[in-house]
Amino acid sequence: MLLAAAATAMVLLPMPVLLAPYHLVILADALIFAIACMGMNLVFGTAGLLSFGHATFFAISAYAGAFLCRFTPVDSFEIYLIFGLSFSVLLAVGLGYLCVRATRIHFTILTLAFCQIVYSLFINGAVFELFGGEGRAIYYVTEGSMYIPRLTLLGIKFGPETFIPAFYNVIVAGAVVAGMVLWRIDRSPFGLALKAIRDNAERAAAVGIRVRRYRWYAFVLSGAFVGFAGSLYGQLSRQITPDQLDWLFSAKLVLAVVLGGLRHFLGPVFGAVVFVGLEEAALGVVKYHNLALGVMLIAVVFLFPGGLAGAVQALFTRRRPGPGGGA
């Protein structure tokens, strides 16, 4: 795994030199989305619970950091990240404790309901009211969006032209570390227990696995990684909007995971990169953007019914010589 992580970093790190600024931002966005999808897959593909509420953790992390930067003199990305991530984890602890008490479709409905409750608190301005007159003014002017200033990285203040390449390296490091940690979780006894619960919860309980507690732990860890991605997204785009709080953003995460292959560890990564690429390609059809995106997604699903990662695995399996093969 260390060799794979090092190879990935070696491929990604030279991109600021090779790509134009716009394409570098698109790649950075795809890496952030990949982190969120890998986090989502911990509760979806590994634990077998479909959540439509993970947009909450993605956006709340960036919103918390945005409020911190707005109402305090904090200008450090590290403090912004820790503060926002703490809110995501605390929210995941509370919501997860309630949601895992239900199973299957009821779990999905609960996550959707909580997601829309949080969304309504922001879109109606209730959260902004907590900050008095200035909070209300921000809400009326921005309609629920928050601006995030360009923060310092390890105490260094970068200018407009140098910030994106520098922050891209932070995103690469975050994606590689997140992938390594999630890989370790997936291969750990905890990860194997989650897969046992996914396949047969009753049998897992019969052999002594504490099903509800393990699901709760998976939900909290998943929310933490998705929140981490949200903080990175907020600083990359320099703003956060209520669109990232809506359940439709959760649906994008689910769609990308399924597109890539939820039973394959790298499936969410493939799905995220392809999904961002398809969205970017669909922007060329301005009037029928959603129609074009939908048609391309349908085509990918029919071409790769087992997910993109499954198709890649099948390709390598076919090319591998058999026991008596070879030149």
Provide the descriptors you would attach to this structure in a database record.
ABC transporter involved in vitamin B12 uptake, BtuC; 1% strand; mainly alpha; 327 residues; two-stranded antiparallel ribbon; 2 strands; 75% helix
Brief sketch in words of this structure:
The chain has 327 residues and is mainly α. It has helices at 2-12, 15-18, 21-46, 55-71, 77-99, 104-123, 126-129, 132-142, 160-187, 189-199, 201-206, 211-237, 247-260, 267-282, 289-303, 308-319, and strands spanning 146-147, 239-240.
If you had to describe this structure to a student in words, what would you say it looks like?
The protein is mostly helical. The protein has one domain: ABC transporter involved in vitamin B12 uptake, BtuC, CATH 1.10.3470. The protein contains 16 helices and two strands. The chain has a two-stranded antiparallel sheet with strand order 1-2. The protein is globular, with a radius of gyration of 20 Å. The protein starts with a helix and ends in an 8-residue tail after the last helix. About 40% of the residues are buried. The model has no long low-confidence stretch (mean pLDDT about 90).
